[in-house]
């Protein structure tokens, strides 16, 4: 596992709200998708559960993530730990069997700082798979579907004190036996994609039943794999491209809103733009991989979420790179993903190095001092802050995240909103913590938006109407 940053490419002319799916025989049928995570901007953030969920200084570290312009945090909810015993009602988000206090704490702390969550579900409880390790799937995928529904309901925004979460993903690196087993059967035939298809369908169905507006990504694939049984020499694995192609052949089709992936370089010294050998997938091959997904799944413009990427540094990691080079590579990675309109998210793994952990890719050193990458990454991310949306030039309403206000203000409560030089108008907070703000200006205009609740808490955003060019990280 690894994760950190999340950046998103600006779509020309505004956010896309529908895609085209090819249905058997070449006929075309439009499929409406839920709204993009952040219209016209790139989500940027971190994954670091050790720091954000369990560390004594987690509040301070979330402050530093916010100051680095993070708009999203990816967190992995381990099903086997969250449900150590079988729940009486798996779809009940508050069943006594569920142990989610640390996730609740993260959701509230992130919301207070205006940061959204992406929840990745993985790891089967022993009670669900006959006592096998957590990388083996459940005997009954209905158990997983129930858990996904419970999570999406708990964080639907309909329960006071439990912030809304709109972004989910299915499993972690299921193309590696470390996370999903077996990858091949005794005769050497691929089994991992078929196993994953059932898991992904279950999670998608559960999340959507509780919250149809949520977005669910599948994949979460590692960057490399062997595509042949290893016979015990190394763990069995599939390359991300082969895994995706085989998954596309599964019936019934696997539904999804985006493909999540971890395009790490093969070595830390390899620059983000350097080519990698197909069917491995790196940042330099995202467009090729996206086009292949379109072909295999019969889609157009499949969105990509880069949910893990990083470079480790010396001296803590002897094979790492100089911290100054890490800073340059971080900026380069953000710039390249921002230029690709498929990419909606970029997550860096991790924020802070900690003694005893296997990864030293943090932007903050073990002693709490910043590496050069922290400031430079934050500067790049702030220029494409996803909380300042770009909307179509003919839009009459802009959806704006107001999570900081939602932390203090119940859903449905009106807050005072000022757009540009216009007077205040009362607008109710949506259950997900967003505001639907009316806009009326010429194409290309940039509007300053200010919202204040009854307690005096205030947020400021900007809304840009209908840019046709890409916003670059540089």
Keywords, separated by commas or semicolons:
474 residues; alpha/beta; TIM Barrel; Immunoglobulin-like; 2 domains; eight-stranded parallel β-barrel; five-stranded mixed β-sheet; 11 helices; 17 strands; 25% helix; globular; disordered N terminus; disordered C terminus
Description:
It is a single chain. The protein is of the alpha/beta class. The chain has 2 domains: 18-387, Glycosidases (TIM Barrel); 391-465, Immunoglobulin-like, CATH 2.60.40. The chain has helices at residues 49-54, 58-67, 79-82, 101-112, 141-154, 192-210, 240-248, 286-297, 323-339, 372-382, 403-408; strands at residues 18-23, 27-32, 43-47, 72-78, 116-122, 167-170, 215-221, 258-261, 304-309, 343-349, 390-391, 397-401, 414-419, 424-428, 434-438, 446-452, 458-465. Strand 5, helix 5 (141-154) and strand 6 (167-170) form a beta-alpha-beta unit. The longest helix has 19 residues, at 192-210. The two termini are 29 Å apart. 53% of the residues are buried.
């Amino acid at each position: 596992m690894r994760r950190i940053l999340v950046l998103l490419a600006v779509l020309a002319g505004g956010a896309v709200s529908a895609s085209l799916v090819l249905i058997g025989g070449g006929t075309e049928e439009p499929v409406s998708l839920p709204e993009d995570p952040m219209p016209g901007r790139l989500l940027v953030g971190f994954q670091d559960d050790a720091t954000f969920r369990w560390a004594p200084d987690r509040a301070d570290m979330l402050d530093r993530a916010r100051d680095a312009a993070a708009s999203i945090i990816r967190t992995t909810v381990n099903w086997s730990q969250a449900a150590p015993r079988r729940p009486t009602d798996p779809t009940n988000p508050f069943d006594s069997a569920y142990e989610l206090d640390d996730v609740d704490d993260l959701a509230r702390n992130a919301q207070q700082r205006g940061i959204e969550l992406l929840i990745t579900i993985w790891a089967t409880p022993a009670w669900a798979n006959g006592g096998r390790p957590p990388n083996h799937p459940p005997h009954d995928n209905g158990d997983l579907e129930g858990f996904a529904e419970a999570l999406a309901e708990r964080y639907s925004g309909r329960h006071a004190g439990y912030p809304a979460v709109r972004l989910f993903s299915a499993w972690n690196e299921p193309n590696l036996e470390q996370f999903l087993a077996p990858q091949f059967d005794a005769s050497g035939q691929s089994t991992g994609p078929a196993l994953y298809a059932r898991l992904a369908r279950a999670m998608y169905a559960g999340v959507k039943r509780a919250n149809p507006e949520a977005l669910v990504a599948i994949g979460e694939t590692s960057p490399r794999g062997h595509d042949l049984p290893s016979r015990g020499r190394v763990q069995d694995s599939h390359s991300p491209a082969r895994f995706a192609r085989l998954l596309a052949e599964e019936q019934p089709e696997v539904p999804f809103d985006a493909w999540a992936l971890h395009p790490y370089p093969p070595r830390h010294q390899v620059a983000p733009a350097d080519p990698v050998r197909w069917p491995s997938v790196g940042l330099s091959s995202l467009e090729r991989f996206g086009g292949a997904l379109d072909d295999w799944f019969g889609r157009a413009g499949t969105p990509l979420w880069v949910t893990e990427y990083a470079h480790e540094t010396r001296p803590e990691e002897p094979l790492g790179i100089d911290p100054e080079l890490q800073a340059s590579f971080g900026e380069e990675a953000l710039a390249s993903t921002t230029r690709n309109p498929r990419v909606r998210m970029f997550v860096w793994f991790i924020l802070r190095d900690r003694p005893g952990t296997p990864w030293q890719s943090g932007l903050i050193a073990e002693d709490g001092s910043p590496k050069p990458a922290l400031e430079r990454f934050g500067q790049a991310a702030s220029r494409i802050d996803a909380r300042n949306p770009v909307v179509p030039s003919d839009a009459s309403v802009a959806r704006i995240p107001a999570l900081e206000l939602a932390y203090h203000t119940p859903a449905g409560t009106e807050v005072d909103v000022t757009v540009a030089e216009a007077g205040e108008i009362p607008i109710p907070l949506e259950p997900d913590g967003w505001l639907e703000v009316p806009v009326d200006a010429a194409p290309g205009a940039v509007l300053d938006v200010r919202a204040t609740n009854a307690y005096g808490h205030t947020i400021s955003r900007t809304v840009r109407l209908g840019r046709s060019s890409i916003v670059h990280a540089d």
